[in-house]
Design a protein that fits this description.
This protein has 160 residues and is of the alpha/beta class. It folds into 2 domains: 1-32; 39-143, no CATH class. It has 2 helices and 8 strands; from the N terminus they run H-E-E-E-E-E-E-E-E-H. The protein has helices at residues 5-28, 137-159, and strands at 39-46, 57-60, 63-74, 79-87, 97-102, 109-114, 127-128, 131-132.
Length: 160
């Protein structure tokens, strides 16, 4: 059986479709980042980063302005050191603050930037000192349960 020209074109089309599916899967899982824009790196220290991962979005007013480049542990201060790659076209004041936020109730975590009012802007290599750690759902639930348990024992003490 002789392969025809149509067989070659169909095979090529199937290969391109498979490559497109792999590309979309990697892109949606944040495992592939095709960013050709240059940027500047700043660092921040957090007491608890929750489930924040490398390549997570950095947003300001809901707009993606950068990505988390790396996360390391500082064994001297016992904090997580997060390196951010911010796009060059966005300049933030030096007194800006960073928060680890969650999109939705159980969605992915990202870093939110709240711009400050300082005249000077962040430059490559700066460290942002105003940070707020992630809210961990398990900690909130345990605090709620412990406060309810403490309220439950208080009325018995008042009866005596």
């Amino acid at each position: 059986m002789q392969p025809s020209k149509n067989d070659v074109w169909v095979g090529l089309f199937v290969m391109l479709g498979a490559l497109a599916l792999v590309f979309l899967a990697l892109q949606s899982a944040n495992l592939l980042s095709l960013n050709f824009n240059t940027g500047y790196r700043v660092t921040a220290r957090f007491d608890n980063i929750g489930g924040l991962k490398a390549q997570a979005a950095v947003r300001s007013a809901g707009v993606v302005v950068g990505r988390v480049e790396s996360i390391t542990f500082d064994d001297k201060s016992y904090q997580a050191r997060v390196t951010l790659l911010l796009q060059d076209r966005y300049a933030f004041p030096k007194d800006s603050s960073l928060k680890i936020l969650t999109s939705g109730l159980l969605g992915e975590q990202y870093i939110g930037i709240e711009a400050g009012a300082d005249e000077a802007h962040l430059v490559p290599g700066d460290t942002v000192v105003a940070t707020q750690s992630a809210l961990v759902l398990e900690n909130l639930i345990s605090q709620f349960l412990f406060s309810k348990a403490a309220e439950g024992t208080a009325p018995e003490d008042n009866k005596k």
